[in-house]
Prior knowledge:
With 319 residues, the protein is mainly α. The protein has one domain (2-318). The protein has 13 helices and 4 strands. Helix 2 packs antiparallel against helix 3 (44-72), helix 3 packs antiparallel against helix 8 and helix 4 runs parallel beside helix 8 (162-177). It is globular, with a radius of gyration of 20 Å. It comes from Oxalicibacterium faecigallinarum. Converts cobyric acid to cobinamide by the addition of aminopropanol on the F carboxylic group. It is found in: Cell membrane. It holds the Pfam family CobD_Cbib. This is Cobalamin biosynthesis protein CobD.
Amino acid sequence: MTFFSILFALLIEQLKPLRADNPVYAWARSLAGQIERSFNAGQAHHGRLAWGLMVAAFAVPVALLYWMAIKIGILAVLVLNVLVVYLTLGFRHYSHFFTSIQLALNNGDEITARALLAEWTRRDTTGMEADEVARIAVETALVTTHRNVFGVFFWILTPLGPIGAVVYRVAEYLARIWNEPGASAEREEFGRFASKAFYWIDWIPVRLTATAFAIVGNFEDAIYAWRNFAARWQDEAIGIILSSGGGAMGIRLGAPVEAAAEVMTADAATVDSTNVEPEAAVGEEASVRSLQSTVGLVWRALLLWMSLVLLLSIAKWLG
């Protein structure tokens, strides 16, 4: 059931990608803003209450629909799962940016590549060299792939099913939107719980993603980089993903402290690689060729995940 839910959702997304300005996402942004304005008084416990209300606003209706679908029959469960996976996945939300940047750099059009990267990451790319554009695109792609694809895969495989996928997506969004860079001290305190909650919700998925990168890439270098360099990122989860992903491809990701590279995902989630010294990492410097390596790594990891989901589904049917 879960395998076909994910497969159908991926196929639908390939045929009709979900727009970033769709009504569900727009309502989520509006509700998150309203809850923050109503509850943010600069205290941590206000953030906990607001987080709980926001998650419940999405999880409770899905739980009721899931219970009703189970009562109706297996076809209703399949339809609900496909719908939830389609709404929570984001495989095509950023892939067009990555592909367009790759084409622009391959054609020597650095101006267009910088403009696309700026639109995608919402940061200043003026004066960036082609290799730096490529490196930031690779870093952003690896993190967004985890958060928009593999993290959702993990939670829909749990007994919570579609409820878990919804909680993961909402928690990821709140951790990002309530902890934007440059926020006031009052907002930092308010968003502290959202950040901690997502850290624990994402604790297992991020390590499974890193393991998948190691399995489908250079295993020894990926594990070595993970063990020795992941802690050099300010964000542990991002450090694990980028160190293992870079090691798997044999490239160096991250920037020295003085470069202060701050990468943002397509929906404004910060990827902080400021604490990593490239000369200490394994592999070569990231280049335009690294973009193609990233495409291969992501697709191989996706096939690995789908294979595991299929095996788990078969085991469940036989059991």
